[in-house]
Design goal:
4 helices, four-stranded antiparallel beta sheet, alpha+beta
Length: 456
Amino acid sequence: MNLTLDPGSHDYPDVMEQYLEDGIATTARFNRKGTMLAVGCNDGRVGIWDFETRVQAQTLLHHVQSVTSLSWSRSGRWLVSSSLDGSVVVWDVAAGEAHKVLNFDGAVMSAQIHPRKSNLLVVCPLTSASFLVDTAEHDPVKARRVIPVDDTGKAAASDAAAGRGAKAAVVTAFTHKGEKLYSGDSKGKILVIDTVTLKVEDSIQVCSGTGSAIKGIVFSQRGDFFIVNAADKNLRVYCTDGNVPEHKFQDLVNRVQWKACTFSSNSDYVVAGSALEANHQIYIWDREKGNLVKMLEGPKDGLMDMCWHPARPILASVTQYGVVVWSVNYTENWSAFAPDFKELEENVEYVEREDEFDDVEEMVSQAKRERVDEEAEVDILTADIVHFGSSDEEGFSDEELVHLPTVPIEDAEQQSAELQAEEGKKEEAAGKKKASSKKSGGRAAAAAVVAAGGGG
């Protein structure tokens, strides 16, 4: 491993910024704009963090065992979680409620939502073939379609029913736009499957021999590259339109297995976390050059999962006791703005020249420029569209959930004052009612006396 030390600026994290504690965490995922972070826990909870304020804004409860995966919809309004209890839940994030609950036989290792169609899911159970699930389909037969597990297009239904799972896909993932499915098996082969017809269009033999199972397939945000994490301790980076790996990444010294891997937001870096239980080691490679640029060492807890922020050089790595946030250690460099700027170690007395600020012509020209700038119209209503990951926005609704809606909480003193005022109004109204009843009773008695005197 050749470690490159770049004294200049870089766009990858190098320091531990913060630690988000949320019980025993197992997995985490950012939404498309990176404003919210979903964290799955060992006890089945799913916490939604507001990443701008670093405060947990919501807790989703349904699973009774460990959460194995999380996946956001493109709009950020739906979140899919899978669990070892065999359930897959589609959450309405804004409402904080379970919108759809799917139950499977045995533990579910992963579930991913379609990048464009929020009603389609790919579910990977532990002991059976993967399923393409349509949550909008009412017919139970059409709602769950078995994904093929070999080149002939056959699904190992008998093996799945028997619970053996020898031919079952280990992992299945959507491509960038969801047009294809990449399904990896325990023999080191990846099948490229059409999402609509579920026909096998191509196959990639990643590795062979013992210990060649495909453990993970991760696509870059723009969809031009994907990483294959295999059990032979190698990470292979492929171009989406090719079957030959562009680079192989491994730890030649320690020969470790990789627990999780991902791309940076601009696909310039490949990131992977060691599977050693007692070490929290993260490796960052330059994807194009293939060299190691940074190695991060976190707390003495094993790494469970990781995810890169979709727009900033921030990495979130999951430990047993929370989420570690890694970021860039920025240093102030004022000379970048003013080349003649000099940093002083202590205050220096400066004597102003008599004619230093007497340039009248410059002052007049500056005033003219300011008047011209003031006369220019400034558009404060039109917002520029910011694309995250890609510039293709076809068929995408503008109703995107960026932040969770909050309900203002009144201060305790204000609440007590309002209660006292309301009670005072009630007492005043009751007093007026009582006084009016006494007054009307006195008038009735006086009228009765007058009537009795007249009768006498």
